[in-house]
Amino acid sequence: MEKLDPKQRLERLGEDLIRLIQEGQNPHIRIPVRGSSNVIWDQSAGLLHLGDKMSKRYFINVAHARKFMQTLLVASFAKQLLDEGIHTSLREAYYSLKRTLPNSKENTFEEQSESDAAFVDLEVTIDLIRDQLHINADRRGTAAGNVIIEDRGDEIDWSRLGSGGWSIPGNVEDIKFKEIDADYILVVEKNATFDRLHEDKFWKKHNCILIGTQGQAARGIRRLIHRLNREKGMPVYVFTDSDPYGWYIYSVIKIGSMNLAHASAKLGTPQAKFLGLTVSDIYNYGLEDAIIRAKDVDLKRAKEIMKYPWFQHKEWEKEIKLMLKNKVKAEQEALAKRHLRFVSETYLPEKIENRSFLP
After folding, report:
1. Torsion angle, CA of 89/95/101/103, rounded to 10 degrees?
2. Catalytic one among 58, 95, 245, 347?
3. Residue 1 lies in a domain
């Protein structure tokens, strides 16, 4: 698509529909297919993305008319947000757009799932993420470090926000990076681990940016990591539990997800490296007494992950096979078995200094 800003892309969508009407054609919208059959692993880019399969949504078609109307409703709503310079949530958008059509019993949207799906269709149609249309994702995640940003006119110093750190908003499109004094980004899965590293001032002692995801990274977190990596050249190291779910958290940060394959280029960070916790670390750091026995569901998920092409590296195969053989997993907090500050004083410094990363 041409280098058009979000408002211009919405206007182009409307202009194309007007042209079709003037030409006497059935108005329609071309929408990339979002099913798994159209999700492609691009090894050269290191990202999942959508393929070339397209569908057409027609106005004069009983099976399409409702979704056609819904797509135009959310497009018009997004244009209004951009014109007025305001942001909203998916939930607010749903209630703003929900109404009964005149002289009928037909509602524009029955459930929020319908409006959510319409926004995703709009995203893929005009090749943007909804954040760029002023639709905010859920707020989740925390950051700390020697970073000064500007957020809607306010200057915020991430190094001076007490024990809580900076609460990452759902939409980071308008964040401006004013000053950054850090060598890399350390992304951690658990709140408890973030709190430990923050209390120990790990980010200050080791000159890094500390980001906590609180589990699977929300869109705002992934976009923030992506921007820091792309715009500022910051290396990214991801620290999760030693289990298939932690590995998948890393995978989503790195290469994107099936559900959001259309947004991988704006949310994924292919340069990210996995720092740990690995299965080998359990034995290398004497954590055998802190392991958790893997359940059948864990082993099944590990086997699934091993089949993903982006996990088919000898280092990853070694770790996954070790888990399957010994039927064990471990949490980040298991490092406290050694002592509470072991993770900040020994484990992470050693791993980073030795560059003990997985691809």
Report:
1. -170
2. 95
3. no
What residue numbers bound the domain in which 327 lies? 142-353
95 is catalytic: yes
Cβ-count burial of 222 within 10 angstroms (0-12 exposed, 13-18 middle, 19+ buried)?
buried
Share of the chain above pLDDT 90, in %: 93
pLDDT in the model for residue 259: 87
Instruction: Please name the residue that has the structure tokens 């757009």.
Output: 97
Phi and psi angles of residue 146, each rounded to the nearest 5 degrees, phi first: -85, 75
Q: Name residue 184's beta-bridge partners.
A: 208
For residue 359, being part of any structural domain is answered with: no
Distance in angstroms (rounded) separating the CA atoms of residues 239 and 291: 17
Cβ-based burial of 296 (10 A; exposed 0-12, middle 13-18, buried ≥19): exposed
Cα–Cα distance for residue pair 253/139, rounded to 1 Å: 17
Q: What is the torsional sign of CA 54, 126, 98, 108?
A: negative
SS3 letters across 212-247: ECCCCCCHHHHHHHHHHHHHHCCCEEEECCECHHHH
Angstrom distances, CA of residue 288 to CA of 278, 294, 335: 13, 13, 11
Q: Quick one: average pLDDT of 88-114?
A: 94
Element (H, E) at 167: strand 166-167
- Do 343 and 335 form a contact (C-beta atoms < 8 A)? yes
Task: State the pTM of this model.
Answer: 0.92
**Is 322 a member of any domain?**
yes
Q: Is the pLDDT of residue 50 over 80?
A: yes
CATH label of the domain that carries residue 286: 3.40.1360.10
